[in-house]
Amino acid sequence: LDAVSRYLRRKNSRARPGVVHRLDRGTSGLLAFGKTEAIAKELQQQFRLQKAEREYVAIVAGIVTDDVGTFASRIGTTRSLQRRVVHGDDEGQDAVTHYRVIERLRDTTVVRAVLETGRRNQIRVHFANAGHPVLGDERYEPEQARHRYWKARRLALHASLLGFIHPRTGAPLRFESPWPDEINRFCAGGRRHR
Fold first, then answer.
1. What does pTM read for this prediction?
2. 101-151 per-position pLDDT tens digit
3. What are phi and psi of 91, to 5 degrees?
4. How far apart are CA 172 and CA 15, in angstroms?
5. What is the pLDDT of residue 193?
6. How far is CA 135 from its chain centroid?
7. Strand-pair category, 157-165 with 28-29
8. According to a count of CB atoms within 10 Å of the terminal CB, is the N or C end of the chain lower?
9. What are the catalytic residues?
10. Structural Rg of the chain based on CA atoms
11. What is the pLDDT of residue 72?
12. Could you give the CA distance from residue 49 to residue 23 in angstroms, rounded to a whole number?
């Protein structure tokens, strides 16, 4: 946000941008900012109303057997600020993640995850709860999330697509980000080691 603010203030010293779509530390991909706080709030509302498109690619531990699926649960926060699936109706917030298997490698699965809701750490919590944590995740099922061929010091999670309606023109906008080198290399090696 600081870097975006400095950039915008070169043209307008009163610019006050706002964060619209952020990523967990260690996740690569697309971010979104509003040039002003008012525009950021309008865009945030699209995300709250589940009108924005958010798609991620992840490499998860183990073999996901179903080609497509949906995780629908409630996610809450523990006293230590750890996120987890909760089972009481009065706890946490609804969280829905749809997924599709892109490719099964030797002992991992490449998945495309589409968020219906946008809870903090949602993809990581859902896949870890299902026994398939995101590779490189040191918070959720870290033992399972380690892989001898995943050498990157980051999550195997990438925000690959972001779509929303421009708040002023009403035009649909859709942005895509190619997979990072770490994910491409891991997949290529996984195909060789099958």
1. 0.90
2. 999 999 999 999 999 998 889 999 999 999 999 999 999 999 999 999 999
3. -110, 150
4. 24
5. 59
6. 13
7. parallel
8. C
9. 24
10. 18
11. 93
12. 19
Burial class of residue 177 (count of CB atoms within 10 Å of its CB; 0-12, 13-18, 19+) = middle
Q: What is the pLDDT of residues 22-81, one digit of tens each?
A: 898 899 999 999 988 899 999 999 988 888 999 999 999 999 999 999 999 988 887 777
The residue whose two tokens read 């006293």 is: 79
| Structure tokens, 17 | 């941008």
Single-letter residue type at 68: V
Helix (H), strand (E), coil (C) string for the chain: CHHHHHHHHCCCCCCCCEEEECCCCCCEECCEEECCHHHHHHHHHHHHCCCCEEEEEEEEECCCCCCEEEEEEEEEECCCCCEEEECCCCCCEEEEEEEEEEEECCCEEEEEEEECCCCCCHHHHHHHHCCCCECCCCCCCHHHHCCCCCCCCCCCEEEEEEEEECCCCCCEEEEECCCCHHHHHHHHHHHHCC
- In whole angstroms, give the CA distance from residue 69 to residue 132: 13
Pairing status of strand 32-34 against strand 83-86 = unpaired
Type of residue numbered 88: G
